[in-house]
Amino acid sequence: MKVKTILVSQTKPTIPHSPFFELEKSRKIKIDFEPFIHVKPVSVKEIRLQKIDLTMFTAIILTSRYAVDHYFRVCEKMRYKVPDSMKYFCQSEAVAFYLQKYVVYRKRKIYVGQRKFADLCPLIEKYNTERFLLPTTDKLKAEVPKLLNKLEINWRQSVFYKTVISDLSHLADVSYDILVFFSPTGIQSLLHNYPDFKQKNTRIAAFGAITKKTCEENGLVVDISAPSKKFPSMTMALDDYIKKVNKKK
Known about the structure:
Helix 1 runs parallel beside helix 9 (234-245). This protein folds into two domains: 5-36 and 166-245, Rossmann fold, CATH 3.40.50; 40-163, Rossmann fold. By secondary structure, it is an alpha/beta fold. Strand 10 (203-207), helix 8 and strand 11 form a beta-alpha-beta unit. The protein is built from nine helices and eleven strands. The strands form two sheets. A six-stranded mixed β-sheet has the order 3-8-7-4-5-6. The protein has a five-stranded parallel β-sheet with strand order 2-1-9-10-11, with helices on both faces. The longest helix has 13 residues, at 65-77. It is elongated.
């Protein structure tokens, strides 16, 4: 079946030249965006109960833009001035670029991984005398603490924000040819909002092995998956799929 409509389970991109916009234009399809999950800040009181003293850390590990926002939110609430000597270890270039919202990039010690958390670990290991803080969500991937523990470094995790399922009741009468998911929590949100969901002719696109596995464990067929050597991004995988199924016979 041809693809005419796609629902991406994320907030609409703010950058004008997003690959999703380019895909929409080049393939002449309609792409909508709807966050299936949203982030809720953890209060300073709750963080204090975790016995976290911000002054004790010399390096911060940042896995997402949410982590950046909530780290600096907490610092401001606690009236903690982040020292210029602080080292920032960012999982990807996107996270490092976003960090510029809060710090003067060229004057800070910033270390950037390629994309996966495992790619960042060798950089962290080089600075094993630092005291690392990992500000994170309550839905942290299990592999992250495992990898950090293997490095035998001084590190602490603290939940600075929580991932919460969004209310999707307004989509009850809306159907799409493809649903795009980037996390297991997105799948959980779909099934929480629509416990009787039947896939039928809807195609599922899943980003990441864990997201794909979660789909399959819940009886959903994954038609499009990324990343891969051939398609490192979701938009590339979608473009290839749409090109094939929309081809005129």
